[in-house]
Every structure is written in C-alpha cells, then in structure tokens.
Amino acid sequence: MIEITNICRSFNAHMVLDNLSLTIKSGETKVIIGRSGCGKSVLLKHITGILKPDSGSIKIDGQEITDLSEKELNKVRMGIGLVFQGGALFDSLSVADNVAFVLNEFHKLDKKMVREKVREALSLVGLKDIEDMMPSDLSGGMRKRVALARALCIRPKIVLYDEPTTGVDPITADAVNNLIIETREKLKITSIVVTHDMNSAYKVADSIAMMYHGKIIAEGRSEDIRNTSHPIVKQFISGASIGPITEAENLVFGHLE
Ligand SMILES: Nc1ncnc2c1ncn2[C@@H]1O[C@H](COP(=O)(O)OP(=O)(O)OP(=O)(O)O)[C@@H](O)[C@H]1O
Ligand SMILES: [Mg+2]
C-alpha cells in the first residue's frame, strides 16, 4: 500500500532522512518508534506530500507521489486520514465542524449528508450527542477520539497517527489503542502509528520499525522487537519503559550526542 524507497531529505545541512526505505502492506498497522527529533513527523509529512524528498521514491497504492502537482496530491490526500501530534482540533470550531473539516473543504456535500457522516464517524469512536460542543469543553481523551473521528470521516484507506496516546492517562491511552485496533479490523484500514509509548506500540503493531539517524535500523513483530539484541533498540525500549520519554532520553541517549 505504501512503498518508500531510498528517500533522502535535508534541512539546511542537516540530513533528517538518510536513504530511508520502508514498506507498509495493505491492512497492516506499522508502528514507527525513535527518539525525539529523529524525523518521524517529517517522514509522515512526506507520505502526505506536504514535504518532498530530495531524492528517492514514495508510492501509494502503486502511484508515485513525489512528482505530483498540488491538485493531484489533493486527490491522494482524500484517501489518507491524519491524526496530528497533540490531536490538534480547531478551538474556534464546534466538534461537528472539526470532524467535517475535510469534507467541508474538499467535497461538495449537502448539509444533511455532512451531518450524517459526522454522526457516523463519532459513533465509530464511541461518541454521540457532542456535535455542538466546543473542543475546550472536552477531556483530553475525548479530544483524541474527536481527532480520530475527523480522520475517519473521509473513509480513508490509510490513517497516519502521530503520537496518538501522548498526554493522556494510561487507561485513556489503552482506549485509544483499542480504537486503533478496531479501526483496522472494522474498516480494513492501513495505518502508520508514530509513538514513544512502547505499551501502545506492542499492542497495536503488526510490525514495529525503529528510526535512528534518518534510517530504519530495525524492523520486526512486537515479540521480535521486545526480545531484540540490537543495542540501540534495546536501549530505546528499556529507556522508554522506565519513565517519561524526556527523562528516559536524557538517561539513555545523553552520551550518544
Ligand atoms: N520544516 C522544517 N525546517 C527545518 N527543519 C525541520 C523542519 N521540519 C523538521 N525539521 C527538523 O527535522 C528534525 C526531525 O523533526 P521531526 O519533527 O520529524 O522529529 P520527530 O521524530 O517527529 O520528533 P518528536 O518525537 O519530538 O515529535 C528536527 O531536527 C527538526 O528540527
Ligand atoms: Mg513528531
């Protein structure tokens, strides 16, 4: 479904993606782990065409997207749901308008149809009767759900999640994990989940890939990664499980800089 081959991308002299290759099969949930700043969000932005690689190829459903025009890219984007880092909702828009945002921007649907699709997407994430509420009235967990409903509203083939469980309590995080799993099972969606949360990674992944210095340095099923002998992966996952990532990173990766 997504085939990334040898992509490179630098900002000024800083090489963020260095000959990175990764394949995501149809219906699979691929989890990407890696320390802060290693380029995970930059990679997701390449898959949506927001950023273009300096070299290399990105194919979605067989179509090369690196040389598409903005107009052609918008068509590809219609099949991709995005759950942004931080679950960002538009504070000045109601829940309904947030969920319908992409529909209202790109599709010409009548209001009744939009309302129906919004209700459907909210019910997929276990929410109802909150269409008229404002994001500021919601709990962190509900905001995450609304962000997922917004991604699902366009009935995408692919959903990209950027740190979906960051900033919510462990029980809410687990509910988000279950939603990711349910989405894959019910809607047969292909997903990429970027996370620092190893519990979440193990739970939702069909396969986990670790990014380090712009490359994928290890890839495997949850059990393979959990039992890895790769020293950098081992450090990362043991670090990630002993506390918040910032502390863990200082502890584990401080000497690598
Ligand atoms: N538009 C940009 N211009 C210049 N540098 C950028 C740009 N976008 C990202 N970078 C740099 O690329 C690197 C990777 O950033 P990215 O946001 O992908 O990290 P990340 O792995 O998602 O980190 P985190 O886990 O903290 O979200 C950083 O050093 C960042 O400063
Ligand atoms: Mg990021």
Bound molecules: adenosine-5'-triphosphate, magnesium ion
* Helicity, as a percent range: 40-55%
Please give the alpha-carbon distance between the first and last residues.
Answer: 35 Å
How large, in whole angstroms, is the Cα Rg?
18 Å
Mean pLDDT: 88
The CATH class assignment of the domain at 2-79 and 156-256 is Alpha Beta
Shape: globular
Structure description:
The protein is α/β, with parallel strands linked by helices. It has a domain of 179 residues: P-loop containing nucleotide triphosphate hydrolases (Rossmann fold). The protein is 40% helix and 23% strand. The strands form 2 sheets. Strands 6-7-8-3-9-10 form a 6-stranded mixed sheet, sandwiched between helices. Bound molecules: adenosine-5'-triphosphate and magnesium ion. The site of adenosine-5'-triphosphate has 11 residues, from α1.
In summary, what is this structure?
With 257 residues, the chain is an alpha/beta fold. It contains eleven helices and ten strands.
Which characteristics define this entry?
binds magnesium ion, alpha/beta, binds adenosine-5'-triphosphate, six-stranded mixed sheet, four-stranded antiparallel sheet, 257 residues, Rossmann fold, disordered C terminus, 11 helices, 23% strand
SSE arrangement:
Elements: E1 2-11, E2 14-24, E3 29-33, H1 40-47, E4 55-60, E5 63-64, H2 70-77, E6 80-83, H3 95-99, H4 101-106, H5 111-124, H6 140-152, E7 158-162, H7 170-187, E8 190-194, H8 198-204, E9 207-212, E10 215-220, H9 222-226, H10 231-240, H11 245-253
Parallel strand pairs: 3-8, 3-9, 6-7, 7-8
Antiparallel strand pairs: 1-2, 1-4, 4-5, 9-10
Helix pairs in contact: 5-6, 10-11
The chain binds adenosine-5'-triphosphate and magnesium ion (MG).
